[in-house]
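thought: fold this chain, then report.
action: predict
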Amino acid sequence: MSGRADRVTGSIAAAPFAGFPEHGRIVVFDLEITAWEGSLARNWSGPGEYMEVVQIGAVKLDAAMPMAELDSFEILVQPEKNPVLSEYFTALTGIGNADLEREAVGFAEALSLFATFVGDARAVLSNGADWSDLVQNAEWVGMDWPFAAGLFSNIRPDIAQALGVPNREAVSSGLPARLGLEEVAGAHTGLGDSRAIAAALRQLRIDGRL
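observation:
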């Protein structure tokens, strides 16, 4: 298994996503990770703060317009370093410890299932560097990276530029509202935010801005 730096280099595009395939399938995904009050502002630098994946959500889209949703994926993951979710995280996402007890699987199983869902998709897109959290979590559990090199792209810089806002303001759940679209259900959940990103991408392509 290669080191994290090598795996990251081999797992992302060299530049932000600059165009969509004309055909085939693409995947838009989003993660929910362990968090505490203020952890975002301090970049998870507090004692014992690890960015462990708690949920993976994704939608598979037809690359051709109107980018129809073909399938969806959502899975809960049991964190190991901090197995008890914070009240802050639960209030933000609606995901509680009882949900993990009922439904969560280990990270290795979750990533394997996500890789199966991705299948032959031509690109896997996220509004941020979510891929890096997957890479780090895979390293923690000693798992080989199951995706082809160059498959993942962070499209936040393109979205932010198209909207004329700083990167930090291009928050996934708020993208539809910025484009005059209806709110997408499930804000701050993996699947809900994936659908919000997809809705924004559709509209930006209709507008000729992406």
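thought: worth noting. The beta strands are 25-33, 53-62, 69-76, 123-126, 152-154.
final: tokens above.
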